[in-house]
């Protein structure tokens, strides 16, 4: 099938690439000329395991092309995915200007019936807005071409995007049109074998499903972070509690890891956006607000432990920082706990020697050459002469380090672990002052 994808960000690029991988003829459209040129030359703008191979292979095979020409994108075929960004507005609600701009473009150029699919995470009611926009532009053109607007949210995780897209656990389709449903069944047939993963529902429910999924996961994390705070103060160990509750299949072991707070481009943005949606209709989102408040507070927890350890005296101190990205296997720094911590340390007059397996360039791009930040090439180099080690991302390479070397290189054996990577009792035996989340101190 001939498929167009507007937007070559995380969602659009991965989606386009895997649709080409299964044999569809995919054209990706982006307004960013440099990005499109890069993609044509095999340069992938994000770090995502497996993506580069798939993009290069399918581009070489002629099944995956890139263009900035929107008219060409619209003419390419009947299936038009909208996968452009929805950055948060000042008040946290999702800004739909890019989504609606694509809707306008499709309506301006279409010369045959189209199925327009919202793939971006968009607030409930967006499909109606897209429909109204397309209808308005078509009317202006004096055209009565048929079109459908479908909601088809994406559930991929950064760092596992290709695998998630190739083997989705569900394919949510929001539509009231049997023809559009049939077309999407064809698009997704290669991913829908063994058992039917398509869950078809009305458009608004599909839109809300996406937010409900992310907000439920964010809630689990904030809940566990709250329990961690309680465990610390009650003399309990949150890791034992985690094991104890996860064994109940109704709770499960997924997404109950306490830590330095959730980050990324999705949870913080989507929780905020659903709060705004609720407020906008006069509904008080008490649970969602608590989830957000807990997360904001959680990002301060490691700093508070550091300040307490040094009796508030942080001026001139140097901290080794392992982990900058908001989670492992990505170079994404959006809403990362590391940013909140570094900024608090700088504010307090301390400096940071940081290492991350993938996010060094991104950190450089965000902070440039600023006082108080030294980016180093290895995790060992970060330790040299530092007062303490702080860990904020659970990259595999941080899980079993040489503790003797850490103790030797630091001024004193002190570790602040925002991801609970090590066993507190063993760390004590090794002679470390070890601070984790919800475990003792
Ligand atoms: C999230 C969802 O997991 C995806 O299903 C969804 O499709 C995606 O958002 C999206 O809307 O596009 P992602 O943001 O890539 O995916 O990252 P997650 O793996 O969900 O992690 C989010 C944050 O939660 C990270 O900062 C992570 O460290 C934190 N986290 C996760 C915890 O603190 N504890 C946990 O137990 C799990």
Automatic annotation (TrEMBL):
Q: Which reactions are catalysed by this chain?
A: UDP-alpha-D-glucose + 2 NAD(+) + H2O = UDP-alpha-D-glucuronate + 2 NADH + 3 H(+)
EC code: 1.1.1.22
The pathway this protein participates in, as annotated, is: Nucleotide-sugar biosynthesis; UDP-alpha-D-glucuronate biosynthesis; UDP-alpha-D-glucuronate from UDP-alpha-D-glucose: step 1/1
InterPro entries linked to this entry: 6-PGluconate_DH-like_C_sf, NAD(P)-bd_dom_sf, UDP-Glc/GDP-Man, UDP-Glc/GDP-Man_DH_C, UDP-Glc/GDP-Man_DH_C_sf, UDP-Glc/GDP-Man_DH_dimer, UDP-Glc/GDP-Man_DH_N, UDPglc_DH_bac
Keywords associated with the record: NAD, Oxidoreductase
Which positions are tagged coiled coil?
Answer: none
What's one Pfam family here?
UDPG_MGDP_dh_N
Q: Which domain of life is it from?
A: Bacteria
- Chain residues that bind NAD(+): 30, 35, 86, 121, 158, 269, 334
Which top EC class is given?
A: oxidoreductase
* Location of the active site: 266 (nucleophile)
Residues bound to substrate: 155-158, 210, 255-259, 263, 327
One biological process term in Gene Ontology = polysaccharide biosynthetic process
UDP-glucose/GDP-mannose dehydrogenase C-terminal domain residues: 320-424
Give an example GO molecular function.
NAD binding
- Would you identify the family this protein belongs to, as annotated? Belongs to the UDP-glucose/GDP-mannose dehydrogenase family.
Write down what this protein is called. UDP-glucose 6-dehydrogenase
